[in-house]
Adenosylcobinamide-GDP ribazoletransferase
Amino acid sequence: MNQWLDDLRTATAFLTRLPMPHPDGARTESFARAQRLFPLVGAAIGAAIGLFCLLLRAIGVPDLAAAALALGGGALLTGALHEDGLADVADGFGGGRDVAAKLEIMRDSRLGTYGALALVVSFAAKLAALAATPNGLVVQSLIAAHTLGRGVLPWIAISLPYARKDGLAANAGRPDGTIAVVAAGIALLIAILALPFGSALLAAIAAAVSALVMALVAKRQIGGQTGDVLGGVEQVTETAILVLLAARLG
């Protein structure tokens, strides 16, 4: 039980800006193991964003504005960790001439044209989807999207080689197959509990397809994964699920 609590603290500290005590004796292996609880932390993030959105709607804020403010609040909660990854991936893949150039651009903290466009498209899609989602499904949809979006990350981590030997992905360590299975199982269970079964199944399929497409693109572009790639996977997956659920349930 202590190990699971340590993993929860580690996952929460990494995925959010919440102050969490650092587990004793934390090592690279500990962080890799903690990825099994990424979906659980994702569910909490989605619930917080959804409840904030409903609160804003309840006090009369228009749906579009409420969605924008809730998504902005979510970015503050997570430190825009995955959004930063998406922007870096778009800049690197779009602007680099070869693998070395792409990786160098991805290291650059400055935001380029491709990154800005990727963030605008992603935010606009999530904004429109959330604004179109009925009150009774706002929290559930966000829980499913954030849960499944993080539930696929261990699979990407074990499926792709490291594009470089240093950086966040390499330093974080690679989870094993058991961790990936546990993470996927938790994510799917939470999605099934949050949504009607058919919608949960479609959301899970959307997550798998989105992650697979991103993995194939990353393999082709830079030969593997980086921390930015994992962030981009989460954002693409989350966006796809929110749009799908808004179309199906809205």
Q: What stands out?
A: The chain has one domain: 30-249.
